[in-house]
UniProtKB/TrEMBL annotation:
InterPro entries assigned to the protein according to its UniProt record, in alphabetical order: MFS, MFS_trans_sf
Any GO molecular function: transmembrane transporter activity
Protein name: MFS family permease
Transmembrane segments: 9-28, 48-65, 101-119, 139-161, 167-187, 271-292, 312-332, 339-356, 362-378, 399-419, 425-445
SUPFAM superfamilies named among the record's database cross-references: MFS general substrate transporter
UniProt keyword annotation of Transmembrane helix present: yes
Entry keyword set: Membrane, Transmembrane, Transmembrane helix
Gene3D superfamilies in the record: MFS general substrate transporter like domains
Length: 455
């Protein structure tokens, strides 16, 4: 463990400014969820199910928009890609507080699709500015900044909504998000190795990775199939008999080959970066989102059942504070921990929160899963940055964010069902068990794939 790593990262030109800009840019959206929920439930006088629906629609919009926004950064550059978000943020959130619930759903969906892609920008820029062991520390610092935001954002949103107005709060979120986008445009962090004075990406391990994953492509499968056929023929002594093809069959065969080549090249060019390892990371991201969202819902349920809703901040201080400490420790490590093991630990540590009866017990029981939270996000992001070429890294980070958002969209209502059926606290059990199962499936699938590649 070497905390000097953080000094090295902060000494990189532009990194301290980028982390500060990331803190500012994340704050409005950290407050948006609570503000939107309180606006629907209190200002519009709707039930909590409707409030949850509005949050889910916003989440779905983000999940759909994140890969597209990341791809736009890859193709057009940061400044051009941010223009739609800057316009949309101030427009949508200035109109949304003044419309009916039905129109609000449409507007928050649009707001989610065009949301400022802070996650993709921060992770891609840090992957360019920090290399090798510095990248791990840089991602840990970004995770720490995120925890600071989520320790303060929801609380500030609740205070503004209850003491001033949710209409004022939502409008302020839109203005602040647009201003954050402008600040990002001015800062213009690098999205490519050629931007500024940053070195070329370290691809020493990429070649070996590509050689391994090449065997999983269509061509590799076809070659393996041909080899197997040859071996069978050699062992059995059979001689294949080929009947001559008719002119019509030859034309159809040529057409099929042409279509396969065209479709195959197009798919490879668009999704060649999607490998089994990348898919595994997306599953881990979705499972993490499921754990976060499900835990959020049950924290509110447990504190409400204990008549301690006003002390809800205590739980988030314990939970996010533990994550901040965990991220700080992880970023000082000399080696990366496999994110799937971190997911397994976090899911298993979440289950005992079922036993909490008040906010203090819940805060203490969430220290262990909190300690693993930031390291999990840092490890998964670092691994994704290592195995995806920087030309497609923005899109990959967008899909990573969408996977987490999709998991959140499942985790919140899923935990709610168990809470309504079995009582407060059982949401922790539900998402914890689901996370353990997903982690074990990922572990066994990875081992099976490595055995196949070795053979």
């Amino acid at each position: 463990m070497n905390f000097e790593r953080y000094k090295e990262v902060l000494a990189i030109p532009g990194v301290p400014l980028l982390l500060f800009v990331g803190l500012i840019a994340r704050f409005p959206h950290a407050a948006a969820g609570v503000m939107l929920t309180l606006h629907v439930a209190q200002t519009l006088g709707m039930d909590w199910a409707s409030a949850g629906l509005a949050g889910a629609i916003f989440t779905i919009g983000i999940a759909i928009g994140s890969p597209w926004r990341g791809r736009s950064i890859d193709m057009k550059g940061l400044r051009k890609a941010l223009i739609p978000s800057i316009i949309s943020e101030v427009t949508v959130w200035s109109i949304a507080p003044h419309v009916s619930f039905q129109w609000l759903l449409l507007l928050v969906f649009v707001g989610g699709v065009f949301a400022l892609p802070v996650f993709s920008v921060m992770r891609q820029a840090l992957s360019i500015m920090a290399r090798g062991h510095k990248r791990r520390s840089a991602y840990a610092l970004d995770a720490i900044v995120t925890e600071i935001v989520f320790m303060t954002g929801p609380g500030v949103a609740a205070l503004v909504a209850t003491m001033i107005s949710s209409v004022v709060g939502l409008t302020a979120i839109g203005i602040a998000s647009s201003l954050a986008g402008v600040v990002l445009m001015i800062a213009n962090p690098p999205m490519r190795s050629g931007d500024g004075t940053f070195p070329e990406d370290d691809t020493a391990d990429q070649g070996a990775f590509n050689e391994v994953t090449a065997s999983t492509t269509m061509g590799g499968a076809a070659t393996a199939s041909a080899d197997v056929s040859d071996e069978v023929a050699a062992v059995t002594g059979t001689i294949p008999v080929q009947r001559p093809l008719s002119p019509r069959q030859r034309r159809l065969q040529k057409m099929r080959h042409r279509v396969r080549r065209q479709v195959g090249s197009k798919v490879t060019s668009q999704f060649g970066w999607v490998t089994p390892a990348v898919l595994g990371l997306l599953v881990i991201s979705a499972a993490a989102g499921l754990l976060f969202a499900g835990s959020d819902v049950d924290i509110v349920a447990v504190s409400g059942a204990a008549n301690q809703s006003s002390q809800l901040w205590i739980v988030f201080v314990f939970w996010s504070g533990a994550s901040l400490i965990g991220g700080l420790i992880y970023g000082a490590q000399s080696r990366r921990i496999n994110p799937v093991w971190l997911l397994l630990a976090m899911a298993a540590f979440t289950i005992p929160a079922l036993m909490a009866d008040n906010v203090w017990q819940l805060g203490l029981l969430l220290i262990l899963p909190g300690l693993v939270c930031a390291p999990l996000l840092s490890s998964a992001s670092e691994k994704l940055a290592d195995i995806v070429d920087e030309e497609r890294r923005g899109e990959a980070m967008g899909w990573y964010g969408s996977a987490m958002t999709a998991g959140s969209a499942i985790g919140a209502p899923g935990a709610g069902i168990f809470i309504d059926t079995l009582g407060p606290g059982h949401g922790f059990m539900a998402v914890g068990v689901a996370g353990v199962i997903l982690a074990l499936v990922a572990i066994f699938a990875g081992k099976a794939r490595r055995r196949r590649l070795a053979s």
